Amino acid sequence: MKETPLIDWLLGRSHWAQPDRAGLPLNRQLFDDIRGAILAGQLSAGTRLPPTREVAKGLSIARNTVLYAYERLTEEGYTLTHGGSGTYVGKAPPDPALRERVFGLSQASEIAPPRAESRLSARARELLDGAGASDRQVGSFVLGIPDVRQFPRATWQRLITQVWKTACQEQLGYGTRHGCPPLKHALAQYLALARGVDCSPEQIVVTQGSHQAIDLCARLLADPGDVVWVEDPGYWGARSVFRAAGLKVEAVPVDAQGMQPPVAPQTAPKLIFVTPSHQYPSGVVMSLARRRLLTELAHRYGAWIIEDDYDSEFRYHGAPQPSLQGLDPHRNTIYVGSFSKVLYPGLRLGFLILPPSLVDAFAVAHSELYRGGQLQIQTALALFIADGHYAAHIRRMRKIYGERQALLTQALQSRLDGEIDIVGTDTGLHLTVLLRRADDHRVSRAALAHGIVARPLSSYYADPVRAQNGLVLGYGGVSEEEIGPAVARLAVAIESVGGA
């Protein structure tokens, strides 16, 4: 393609009659067209591009527009400029002879690359097959979402502003102490009083949420192929993290006292993951006897217990059970917590409380794998806790959530009496509803069509033989006014599949 034909070819492009093709400025359109001609082989290496004045005149556009396109072509390696002699096409496309030598193909041959999904690792495919994350994070009855409308934004904004006014260089960096020291100090004090946790501030590693904390445990405390016990039914997110780390996940049944561990397993576990304060999703609170049994078994097998203290802040009936970590005489328990349910999920802050023997290794690994950060937010959170706002917010929300749970329970019993059984009412932000007749997967799909998110309980089981038929309903983000109408729509969904 010679210089004049190039201009003629550009003039023949229909888009030049349209000044705004796909929202792109003319200089970008010109760049794209010349680059496309080079990559398609229509402009071969060594071809001299027409002078910018000729192109500008021929296309009736500003010369600066052409200059921009030429300069970008040169910057990205598609063209070369030889001082005063013009702009020439470089060797951007693969040289045909080189292509034949490297791939053993003729110029006309085409390489058929493998499909993208076939290039995923086996762990990735297993992760995707068992993925449970939802793109619905608002509405009735979405799980794991607190009422962020109740978050004390004015107080939080004041603290954030206060911190930013005095932010030093260290607070704007990655941080080197695996978390903001004032936050770790405030956390240690609060958890000792509220949860019976036995720790010093130095034992805390601040993470980006509980998933990162669990991932760090999986990477540092077990090797691929090692066994990890998880609850069945149990939290799909933890199972996904362990599988992605290459661990062998063994589902251990949950009964009325919590995880029911085998006393003589075929293979001893390296990790034991439990949610003793509010088992997810059954709502069972692990008994004191079962907690003691678990700590003794972990000590016998040389295993680490990962205690996810899920929803422990919101208990409505009876005295709260102390943390498993505080009861473990052998110091084999790692406590995992986060602020997602108490404050707001987008905060993305969690923490690990480690036995002293693990602190140094976890601190170095956390910095190596993830780096620290958000130190100004951590500082504001430290003030939020130390000034009493955190405890006050929990007390206020415990009352609100308790009232919502009572309303939801009453509405379910009134509308679906005889068709359901409700369990897990002592603690947390969700109810588990056992269905006596209707298939939970069919009900879940029908409910979604009515604007209701109701997760099928059976999907939380790794062993389908043990699976119970039911729904898991979150009420944290559902206002009192929404509960009645939402239950009515859920009942219609159940009736539509022949369950009531």
Notable characteristics:
single chain; 500 residues; alpha/beta; Arc Repressor Mutant, subunit A; Aspartate Aminotransferase, domain 2; Aspartate Aminotransferase, domain 1; eight-stranded mixed β-sheet; 17 helices; 41% helix; globular; EC 2.6.1.1; WH-like_DNA-bd_sf
Quick structural overview:
This protein has helices at residues 3-11, 26-39, 52-59, 63-75, 96-103, 122-129, 153-165, 181-194, 209-221, 236-244, 288-301, 324-327, 359-369, 375-386, 389-415, 440-449, 480-496, and strands at 79-82, 86-89, 204-207, 227-232, 248-255, 258-259, 271-274, 304-308, 333-338, 350-353, 420-423, 430-435, 455-456, 470-474. The chain has three domains: 3-89, Winged helix-like DNA-binding domain superfamily/Winged helix DNA-binding domain (Arc Repressor Mutant, subunit A); 123-133 and 152-389, 3-Layer(aba) Sandwich (Aspartate Aminotransferase, domain 2), CATH 3.40.640; 392-496, Aspartate Aminotransferase, domain 1, CATH 3.90.1150. An eight-stranded mixed beta sheet has the order 3-10-9-8-7-4-5-6, with helices on both faces. A four-stranded antiparallel beta sheet has the order 11-12-14-13, covered by helices on one side.
Please give the structural blueprint.
Elements lengths: L2 H9 L14 H14 L12 H8 L3 H13 L3 E4 L3 E4 L6 H8 L18 H8 L23 H13 L15 H14 L9 E4 L1 H13 L5 E6 L3 H9 L3 E8 L2 E2 L11 E4 L13 H14 L2 E5 L15 H4 L5 E6 L11 E4 L5 H11 L5 H12 L2 H27 L4 E4 L6 E6 L4 H10 L5 E2 L13 E5 L5 H17 L4
Parallel strand pairs: 4-5, 4-7, 7-8, 8-9
Antiparallel strand pairs: 1-2, 3-10, 5-6, 9-10, 11-12, 12-14, 13-14
Helix pairs in contact: 1-3, 2-4, 3-4, 6-10, 7-14, 8-14, 9-10, 15-17, 16-17
